[in-house]
Amino acid sequence: MSSPPPVDGRRARGERTRATVLGGAVQLASVDGLEGLTIAHLADRLGVPKSSVHTAFGSKADLQVAVLRRTREILVEHVIAPSLEVPAGLPRLQAVGDAWFAYLAGDLFEGGCVLSSASSELDGRPGPAHDALVTVMTEWLDFLAGNARAAIKAGDLDPAADPAQIAFELQAIGLTANWHHQLFGGDAAFTAARAAWAGTLGRHRPAS
Fold first, then answer.
1. CA distances from 89 to 92, 146, 149, 152 (A)
2. Hey, where are the domains in the chain?
3. What is the pTM of this model?
4. Predicted confidence (pLDDT) per residue in 41-79, tens digit
5. Are the C-beta atoms of 198 and 94 separated by less than 8 Å?
6. CA-CA to 7 of 20 to 30 Å: which in 77, 100, 120, 140?
């Protein structure tokens, strides 16, 4: 019986350092925006040498892309994965809304969801971070549209409904709820958002 491969201590420490730096970067980006995310500021916030951040990510652009990808992982963990446990169709679409609004209202980020704020911050700024955001948000819109398509197939929504249009409308509700919550505080935005989400799905129900 062969022995397990030896543990590479330096690599393990490097991965832990990278995870710590990335976690701090996500929180800093949520407060200061991706453009405000600098290696010097992050290193100062975390109390680590700038060289540690450079070693982990290489450049500001690489760090921005890593933050967007990490935020995607958080979205998957807290919104997409739980909703997939609910049967496909209208129940899952409703579960997506409930999970998304809980995610936006929670304390996962110091300054609100990075994907939501970055959608406004980077919409007119080409570059690696913009391209990474487009990839993540296209995946999210496809997820919404795919679930709308499944609801149509299940007979829960009008067969003439356009899944892409439904995804557009639902995405607009979430972005508006996050904006309202971040600007005005409180949870009133999510009460209104849940009503709007239910109303949007109701408008696309089959004619009786």
1. 6, 10, 8, 7
2. 9-203
3. 0.88
4. 898 888 888 888 888 887 889 999 999 999 999 999 999
5. yes
6. 77
